[in-house]
Design goal:
Number of strands: 28
Radius of gyration: 24 Å
Helix content: 10-25%
Oligomer: single chain
Largest sheet: 11 strands, mixed
Mean pLDDT: 93
Strand content: 25-35%
Distance between the termini: 34 Å
Low-confidence stretches: 1-8
Length: 480
């Protein structure tokens, strides 16, 4: 994809990457949601989405909308696959898809003319790219004529987990319908007049703004105020919390598509899945002769039609059927496949109890690398830090804890008060309470540090930043 400005006739992919994926806990967490995970191949769902049109003609650089907490992870994943985004817009809070698309449309009209926008959620799987490309080309023709195009998925079953679209004459949308009960879904499937609602759209930026102004002028007006107050921050476009939170929360469907007379639907038959639950992942995964989808260090005996995933240690099953078993370093999920949608209730309980497992993995990612908890006890905590080559933690201090750093791999440049140290493997230093300090990796290989914290309070919010090359603010993106 080109990283230049849009030219006439180019399609601008709009990647909606703001979801949380609670039904895929414990792999998906609030600070590392499912679109950043590799679930159906070597690449993450986000990476697969941005590469979906990599060899399609007349495609410009994508616009990505994501939660501001995920900004560095999103930027790094795009960099890994060689995609330079046209813009990464940061949402300080969730406001659903209509405001997200509106802000992208305003940005595109300001900086890229009036392109056709191809709206794609970042958590979809579409194996048949040739079929998808063919439909995108057809959709672009309708969008150029001023239509608002949605892609409907040719249903493979009487699914009750999706909304449906009734198809009228000449591709017109006859109706959007809510998720049906099993009997109604069977009627829809047998009639041949209904498609699953995919949440993908194609439309010109100006057409979206025009139609939104007709049906939800409140969303348009509030979005224009928020966009005008936005600021550039490194590679990101940051939207202010107060103005953004004032935008009414609404979906693209409810805001415009269910009301406009310009909506058309095109059928997509390309193996689509949104991987909305563990049972769906089992359906799209490769399975053994017993119907098991296995990942990681697993050992199964007399096990059938189950999903078993091991991420940290060996997982064994005996004499089970239709189960989901997902192991991570800090949590294990066991549920029946038919109850996979109910995992969201576990996440809600964790959140209500203020347990960290709904937000973080044991390994927490930062723009400079990552850290992982190793041990914790009364007045002490041990972490393992990995700092990317050329990266640095912020210049900071702590009011309640001291830190010991031991280099186990690579070379560390340490700012310690007024002095600067260069440490190599098996060398260490001590940071007293309240002392300004910074850790940098001047080398060409990852720097691995064992950090021992000691003190009366060891929370990640005990940090005062004095300088940060990633423009993180006080209280923003807690941690070093």
């Amino acid at each position: 994809m080109s990283d230049t400005e849009n030219t006439s006739g180019d399609i601008v992919p709009v990647i909606l990457a703001g979801g949380s994926g609670t039904r895929l806990w414990p792999l998906s967490r609030e600070y590392y949601p499912k679109q950043l995970l590799s679930l159906s191949g070597d690449q993450s769902l986000l990476q697969d989405t941005v590469l979906r049109l990599a060899d399609f003609d007349h495609v410009s650089s994508p616009e990505v909308v994501c939660n501001e907490e995920h900004r560095f992870l999103v930027a790094e994943q795009l960099r890994e696959v060689g995609v330079a985004p046209g813009r990464i817009l940061l949402e300080p809070v969730g406001r659903n898809t209509a405001p997200a698309l509106t802000l992208v449309a305003l940005d595109a009209m300001m900086n890229r003319g009036d392109p056709v926008l191809l709206v794609m959620p970042a958590d979809h799987v579409i194996p048949d790219r040739e079929a998808f490309h063919s439909l995108v080309a057809e959709g672009a023709r309708f969008a150029d004529e001023g239509k608002l195009v949605t892609f409907g998925i040719v249903p493979s079953s009487a699914a009750t987990g999706y909304g449906y679209i009734r198809v009228g004459d000449d591709h017109a949308v006859s109706a959007f319908v809510e998720k049906p009960d099993p009997d109604t879904a069977t009627e829809y499937l047998e009639s041949g007049d209904y498609l699953w609602n995919s949440g993908m759209f194609m439309l010109k930026a100006s057409v979206w703004v025009e139609e939104l102004g007709k049906y939800r002028k409140d969303i348009l007006d509030a979005s224009q105020i928020a966009y005008a107050a936005g600021t550039h921050d490194l590679d990101f476009f940051r939207l202010p919390l107060e103005e953004f939170a004032a935008i009414p929360s609404e979906s693209i469907d409810y805001a415009v598509m269910e009301k406009t007379d310009r909506a058309v639907v095109l059928p997509l038959d390309a193996g689509w899945s949104d991987i909305g639950a563990w049972s769906v992942l089992w359906e799209v995964s490769q399975r053994d002769r017993a119907g098991n989808a296995l990942s990681g260090d697993t050992l199964v005996h007399d096990t059938r039609n189950s999903l078993v995933m091991a991420r940290h240690r060996m997982v064994a099953t005996v004499g089970v059927e239709d189960l989901v078993v997902v192991e991570t370093p800090d949590a294990v999920l066991v549920c029946h496949k038919e109850r996979a949608q109910d995992v969201k209730h576990i996440v809600a309980s964790l959140k209500q109890s203020e347990r960290p497992e709904y937000r973080f993995h044991r390994r927490v990612y930062r723009p400079w690398g990552s850290y992982e908890g190793v041990d914790i006890g009364e007045r002490f905590q041990v972490k393992r830090l990995s700092v990317k080559p050329g990266a640095a933690l912020s210049l900071q201090s702590h009011q309640h804890r001291a830190e010991h750093w031991v280099v186990v791999r690579g070379t560390a440049r340490v700012t310690r008060g007024e002095e600067e140290l260069l440490l190599t493997e098996n060398e260490s230093t001590y940071i007293p309470v309240g002392m300004k300090h910074r850790l940098e990796n001047p080398g060409k290989i990852p720097l691995e540090i064992v950090e021992v914290q000691s003190g009366g309070y060891l929370g990640e919010d005990d940090i005062e930043r004095f300088d940060d090359r990633y423009n993180r603010h006080q209280g923003d993106d807690q941690g070093s």
